[in-house]
Amino acid sequence: MRILLDEQLPRRLARHIQGHHIRTVQQQGWAGLRNGELLLRAAASGFDILVTADQNLQFQQNLAGAKLGVIVLTAVSNRFDDLLPLMPEALLVISETRPDELRRVGPR
After folding, report:
1. Which residues have C-beta within 8 Å of that of residue 40, sequence separation ≥ 6?
2. Residue 62: is its pLDDT beyond 90?
3. pTM value?
4. Is there a contact between 39 and 17 (Cβ–Cβ < 8 Å)?
5. Residue 23 exposure: Cα atoms within 13 Å on the Cβ side
6. What domain range is 72 assigned to?
């Protein structure tokens, strides 16, 4: 799968999403894009999944008909040490997420 890691997440988190082609928003040159434009560009560029920590994304964007899935990491903070324990569950959820579906990983 082609996975895009959102800009508010630590870049080194990408090393812990193994078995997939992963790029960061910064590597794509898309830093600073608003969520709607980011989702459109990611889908048009062939990404399957956006991994983000944006808790409000589902309320700000209509994901129905989107061409990629979204995984929201929910942790105490966006620090690497807080997000790293979520990676085993995130890897499972990545393989199960369909286009236009939003899934949460972490404490509910």
Report:
1. none
2. no
3. 0.92
4. no
5. 14
6. 2-105
